[in-house]
Specification:
Layout: H1 5-15, H2 22-34, H3 37-53, E1 55-56, E2 63-64, E3 81-85, H4 88-95, E4 102-105, H5 124-131, E5 137-140, H6 146-159, E6 165-168, H7 184-192
Parallel strand pairs: 3-4, 3-5, 5-6
Antiparallel strand pairs: 1-2
Helix pairs in contact: 1-2
This protein binds zinc ion.
């Protein structure tokens, strides 16, 4: 049986979203079909709104609807600490830790698979912030992947000479984890990053 074309089209669009397979797409499409028209309009408006009104902050790259973003324009945030993350969504996670410094979002997931060269990364916006002279510590909070490692090393080199301390997140054991089942790289890093008790 062939589905009505508009329904098929909606399923196709939903299927393009991450983690949405054909069955979930179909279920969502049928759910949307049964929604009151007012709710469908709100959903459609929210989709357009997010596209039109949310953009990267011109200073830090955080997603925002006002420029500079609320973090950059908050005078209570510490200007001496700059945390570098890969994606704006990483900020939400770091914020939950109570970190009160500022951020810089790379906003492009660097992938070695794409044959990209970290030397092609535009580090000028980052160097501009460092040249203001307020930052004393740069925290590299990139993902613990090979790509994250390569980019971290590249950034550490690009930053050197700016008279700032460069640190990175410690690797360690997950809370509630089990040493017996921890991979050797994580365990070795946890051992290297051990702290006095
Ligand atoms: Zn900002």
């Amino acid at each position: 049986m062939r589905l009505p074309r508009p329904l098929e089209n909606l399923i196709d669009q939903l299927q393009k979203l991450p983690s949405i397979g054909p069955k979930t797409a179909q279920r969502l499409a049928l759910y949307i079909l049964r929604l009151p028209s007012e709710e469908v309009s709100q959903l459609a408006r929210a989709l357009i709104d997010v596209q039109e009104r949310v953009f990267p902050c011109s200073k830090c790259g955080n997603l925002t609807d006002s420029d500079p973003c609320p973090i950059c324009s908050n005078p209570a945030r510490l200007g001496n600490s700059l945390c570098i993350v890969e994606e704006a969504s990483d900020i939400l996670s770091i914020e939950r830790t109570g970190y009160n410094g500022r951020y810089f979002v790379l906003n492009r997931s660097f992938k070695l698979m794409d044959d990209s060269d970290p030397a092609e990364m535009n580090v000028q916006p980052l160097l501009r912030i460092l040249n203001e002279g307020k930052v004393q510590e740069v925290i590299l909070a990139l993902n613990p992947t090979i790509d994250g490692e390569v980019v971290s090393r590249f950034l550490a080199t690009a930053i050197s000479g700016h008279n700032v301390k460069v640190t990175r997140l410690a690797y360690g054991l997950p809370i509630g984890g089990d040493i017996e089942f921890t991979d050797e790289i994580t365990l070795r890093r946890a051992l290297e990053g051990r702290k006095e008790f």
